[in-house]
């Protein structure tokens, strides 16, 4: 018995999560339900796996905090892993991430979501309970920018779940605990890193929320997630996280910055043998902004009901759209395209890597001829590898807390 074979067993059963606990059999979450499989896992074996995965550098941090988050590729699948201390010993909670590149089409999301990331600044919130696919939808929105626009994207995640390869965008991914000590520090750093788009993996505390709102007001497009079951609850949760005496100011700040809220849940389709996302989409119209400023969240439901012409969707209307949908993307039925473009194969091995940055047209005027003439030809482009690797530079850096 090893961790690789257990992950492989989870994959073959179509599980989204794998839970390991000392003295208990492995538990698989399949279509939202837990099922046990196999024999009990000894606590000594789990302890050895944890120490092997964390390594001697990160092991003291686990002993201090009694938990650790990381991402790792196991059995050819990227996994989000939480190692935790329990009353029985060391346990694992492993989320098996999709093996394909997340896009709006492949996740069977409504194509209207593509319009949201066309904005240059503002706040887009993704909400939903744990395990509803928020991270996948967030990755699909980032990938949509990556495929269509030349923007500088900075992601702040804990841990990194989906790795992106730059297509048209220039992407930097930072993992909390490895590349930056906290969400707060990463957000402060990001404002000095000339980003066009910021992606915040999760807004967990008021300070992270404050900095995220501030970034969305300073000319950046910010995408973030929050745990809630509806759009109205997501807005209320952010404002109520702050002290009562400043909630009115925070509500006004949210109203000014907000572009849209997407609330998501998953439903299993037996006819397709997949789980399909169902969405509630709230657009920040003038009426919605006034409801937020006045903290009248109970009126958001009526705005959703009457806001179809503004691109809003209630869960009920979205379900009807899914029922009428004819074409579906089924994972594993369509082969993934190669990461390397044919033109790149002809690039000379001695040529230094050049990243194609094309000037963006803004309202200030047309692109100058001189700027356009400096753009490198597509045939001379080499891919930038985003996947972090273990380098000498990483070994000499002091880790947070040391």
Keyphrases for this structure?
single chain; 402 residues; alpha/beta; 7-stranded mixed β-sheet; globular
Textual characterization of the structure:
This protein is of the alpha/beta class and 402 residues long. The protein has helices at residues 3-12, 43-65, 134-148, 183-190, 206-216, 231-240, 247-257, 286-293, 300-306, 315-324, 342-345, 369-373, 392-396; strands at 17-20, 27-30, 33-36, 67-74, 77-86, 89-96, 122-127, 152-157, 170-175, 197-200, 221-226, 258-269, 274-283. A hairpin with a 4-residue loop joins strand 12 (258-269) and strand 13 (274-283). It is globular, with a radius of gyration of 22 Å. Residues 338-400 have low confidence and may be disordered.
In short:
This protein has helices spanning 3-12, 43-65, 134-148, 183-190, 206-216, 231-240, 247-257, 286-293, 300-306, 315-324, 342-345, 369-373, 392-396, and strands at residues 17-20, 27-30, 33-36, 67-74, 77-86, 89-96, 122-127, 152-157, 170-175, 197-200, 221-226, 258-269, 274-283. By secondary structure, the protein is of the alpha/beta class. The strands form two sheets. The chain has a seven-stranded mixed sheet with strand order 9-8-10-11-7-12-13, sandwiched between helices. A six-stranded antiparallel sheet has the order 3-2-1-6-5-4.
């Amino acid at each position: 018995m090893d961790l690789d074979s257990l992950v492989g067993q989870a994959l073959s059963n179509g599980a989204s999560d794998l839970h390991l606990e000392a003295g208990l059999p492995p538990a698989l979450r399949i279509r939202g339900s837990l099922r046990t499989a196999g024999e009990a896992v000894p606590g000594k074996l789990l302890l050895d796996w944890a120490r092997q995965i964390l390594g001697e550098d990160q092991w003291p941090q686990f002993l201090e905090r009694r938990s650790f988050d990381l991402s790792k590729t196991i059995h050819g699948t990227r996994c989000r892993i939480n190692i935790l201390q329990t009353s029985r010993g060391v346990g694992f909670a492993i989320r098996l991430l999709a093996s394909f590149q997340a896009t709006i089409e492949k996740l069977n999301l409504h194509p209207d979501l593509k319009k949201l990331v066309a904005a240059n600044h503002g706040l887009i919130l993704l909400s939903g309970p744990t395990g509803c696919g928020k991270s996948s939808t967030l990755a699909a929105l980032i990938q949509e920018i990556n495929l269509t626009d030349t923007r500088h994207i900075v992601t702040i995640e804990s841990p990194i779940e989906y790795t992106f390869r730059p297509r048209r965008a220039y992407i930097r991914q930072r993992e909390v605990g490895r590349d930056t000590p906290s969400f707060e520090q990463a957000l402060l750093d990001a404002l000095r890193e000339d980003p066009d788009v910021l992606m915040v993996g999760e807004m967990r505390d008021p300070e992270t929320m404050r900095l995220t709102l501030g970034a969305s007001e300073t000319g950046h497009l910010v995408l973030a997630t929050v745990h809630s079951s509806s759009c109205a609850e997501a807005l209320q949760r952010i404002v109520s996280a702050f002290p009562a005496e400043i909630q009115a100011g925070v509500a006004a700040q949210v109203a000014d910055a907000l572009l849209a809220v997407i609330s998501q849940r998953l439903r299993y389709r037996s006819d397709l043998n997949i789980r399909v996302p169902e969405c509630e989409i709230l657009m920040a119209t003038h009426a919605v902004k006034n409801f937020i400023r006045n903290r009248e969240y109970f009126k958001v439901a009526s705005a959703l009901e009457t806001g179809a012409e503004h691109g809003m969707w209630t869960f009920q209307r979205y379900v009807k759209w899914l029922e009428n949908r004819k074409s579906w993307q089924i994972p594993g039925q369509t082969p993934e395209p190669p990461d390397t473009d044919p033109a790149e194969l002809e690039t000379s091995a001695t040529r230094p890597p050049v990243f194609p940055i094309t000037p963006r047209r803004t309202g200030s005027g047309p692109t100058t001829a001189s700027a356009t003439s400096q753009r490198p030809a597509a045939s001379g482009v080499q891919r930038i590898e985003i996947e972090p690797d273990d380098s000498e530079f990483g070994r000499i850096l002091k880790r947070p807390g040391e």
